Amino acid sequence: MFEEGASNAEIARAVGVCAESVRRWRRVWEEGGVWALRRRAATGRPPKLDDAQVEMVRAALARGARAHGFEADLWTLERVGAVVEQKTGVVLSRASVWRLLTGRLGWSLQRPERRAVERDESEIARWVAHEWPRIKKGP
């Protein structure tokens, strides 16, 4: 669109960005051409775990928390951090463990249902079918 002579406002409307972004892009394009507009690798600190280590952690977590000596088969950030340290020797903060789980492993927050161990589904179904209609008021 730059080569066709479109205005910054036209380009901004066409691609759904603000005109300031288009002005910045145009400046880069004028100085370095189309190649200067290409996406560059992300800057910042590299991840502490490489892809092989992440896969090692994924396999370890797939075995469950009990396989790593925890009482309940429930993963917490602290438990995952302990497994990461045990398997890779890398110590991660809680925030880094969260980013590992949600970003690189694709996990999401899950909370266990709170249910009584003594819960009897058949008795509940019987009560709803027979007792509830008997005591329910109104239609």
Short description:
This protein is mainly α.
Instruction: Give the SSE string.
Output: HHHHHH
Q: Report on the biggest sheet.
A: none
Quick one: how many beta strands? Answer: 0
Distance between the termini: 67 Å
- Give Rg in angstroms: 28 Å
Shape assignment = flat
Protein name: Winged helix-turn helix domain-containing protein
Pfam families: HTH_29 (PF13551), HTH_33 (PF13592)
Domain Winged helix-turn helix: 72-129
InterPro entries: Homeodomain-like_sf (IPR009057), Winged_HTH_dom (IPR025959)
Report on this structure.
The longest helix is centred in the C-terminal third of the chain and has 15 residues, at 121-135. It is flat, with a radius of gyration of 28 Å. Helices cover 52% and strands 0% of the residues. The protein has two domains: 2-37, no CATH class; 45-138, no CATH class. Helix 1 crosses helix 2. The chain has 139 residues and is mainly α. It has six helices and no strands.
SSE diagram, text form:
Layout: H1 8-15, H2 19-32, H3 51-62, H4 77-88, H5 94-104, H6 121-135
Helix pairs in contact: 1-2, 3-4
Keywords:
139 residues; mainly alpha
